[in-house]
Amino acid sequence: MRIKIVGAAGGEVTGSAYYVQTKDANVLVDAGLFQGGKKSEAKNRLPSGVNLSKLDAVLLTHAHLDHTGRVPLLIKHGYTGLIYATAATIELTELILQDSARLQVHEAERANRTRNFSRQGPVEPLYSPEDVVPFSQMTQAVSFGEPVHVAEGISARWIEAGHILGSASIELTITEDRRSWTVLFSGDLGPIGRPINRDFERPNRADIVFLESTYGDRDHRSYSDTVAEFEELVKQAAEVRGKILVPTFAIGRAQLMLYHLAIMFHRGVVKPFHVYLDSPMAIEASKEMVTHPELFDEELLEWKSHGLLPLDKAWFHASVTARDSQSLNDVEGPCLILAGAGMCNGGRILHHLRHGLLRDNTHVLIVGYQARGSVGRRLVDGAKSVSIFGEKISVRAKVNTLGGFSAHADQSDLLKWFTPLAASRPQIILTHGEDVPRKKLSAAIQERFGLRSQLPSQGNIVEISAPLITPQAVAS
Ligand SMILES: [Zn+2]
Questions:
Q1: 7, 309, 439, 463: which could form a disulfide with 15 (CB 3.0–4.6 Å)?
Q2: How many whole angstroms from 443 Cα to the centroid of ligand 1?
C-alpha cells in the first residue's frame, strides 16, 4: 500500500490531494486546486501518477476549492467513477465548481486579450462549465459516522471536522494481502467552540495520520476578544462613515460575519447600516446552509429561535448580478461589503479593493487565511501598494487582521484533536501548512507525545508494507 501526496505539501497550503494505491484499488482523497499566485497555480494539472482509467473512487473531505477544485479536471480527462462526500459537501461543491469553471474561462479570456497569439498561442481555460455538468450525476452522498465500501479492500468513514458545513475527516480502513491499516486524513479542522458549526469529533485510533498544519505554529486570539475587536472596528468605521471591505470565502466565513453583525445590530452595539453580501456563490451557499439545521450548533439554533434568521432586509442585501456589484462603488458609508475571493486572488473583492484602498476611511478586515503570493497576503504584510488588474494601487485604507475568525484549528486545537490518537502511536504526516507552522507543530507533537512527524514534499510517497495487525486479526 502506498499513498502519494499530490498537493498541499512541501510548504503549500492549497491543492490538497492524496492518491491511495493498493494492489487491488486506487482512490483519490480530495482533488484540490492550487491557489495564491502564478507559481502555485502553475501546478494545476492532473495529479501526477494518477491513472484515471484505474481510479476507483474520489473521496472529498469538504467543499472548499483547495480540496475540490481539480475534480472537473478529472472529469474533463475521462474520470467516470463515483465521487463520495457528505450531502452538504456535495451541494456546496457543485456551487464552488461552477463558480470556479466560470472564473477559469474568464481568466483565460482576460489573458488572451493581452497575449501575443503569433508567438504564444491562446491560453486555454483549465476547465469550463461543461466539465462540471456531470459532477452531480457522479456523486454518492454519505452519512457521518457510517463506513462505506468505496473500492476493493477500502472502506471509508466521514467524521465531523467542524471546519465548514458538511466538512469531515476521512478514515480509511485499507486491507491488502490480509493486512489491514487505518489511515486518517484530518481534512481541514475547525476551531473549537465557534458558533454555527459543530465542533470536530476526535477519532481515537489510527496507524497513519495525515494532519493539516495551517496554524500549527500559533494560537488564535480568544474568540471573545476577536468579536470585541470586530465590534470596535465596525464602530470606528461607522463613525467616519467608511466602507468596510471583508474578503471572505463564500462558505463559512461570510455567514459567520453576518451572524455577528446581526447580533451587534440586535443588541444595539452600533446602529444598523447596510451590509452587502456581494457574492452569488455565498448567497446560494447561505440558502443551502439553512436547509441543513441538523448540522447547526446550539448557538445557531438559538439565534434561529430568536427570530434573527432570516436576516432583516432593512440592512441585509444580497448582491447577485455584476451590475449590483458595480453599483456598490457609489454607495456611501457606513456600509460593509462581504465579497470573494477570500484571499483577494480574484473575484469581486478586487474591484472593491481597487476603489477602496485609495481612501483612508476604508477599512479592510482580513478574516481568513491569505496564501503567499495573494493580494490579501500583501495587504496583511503591510504593503504600501498592491497590483490589481495590472494597475498599481496605493494602500491608504486601514488593514486589520482578525485571526480569531479563522475557520482553522490553532495549535492547541490541533493537539487536542490528535491527543486521543497518540496512544496508538501512528505514523504522522504533516501537510497543508507552510514550513514554519509545520515544523512548530511537529516539535509540539514530539514534545507532548514523544512522536516524530514526517514533513513531506509534493510528490513524496508514503510507502507502507509492514503488517500492522496480524492476519488472524483481519480474518476474525
Ligand atoms: Zn477548507
A1: 7
A2: 24
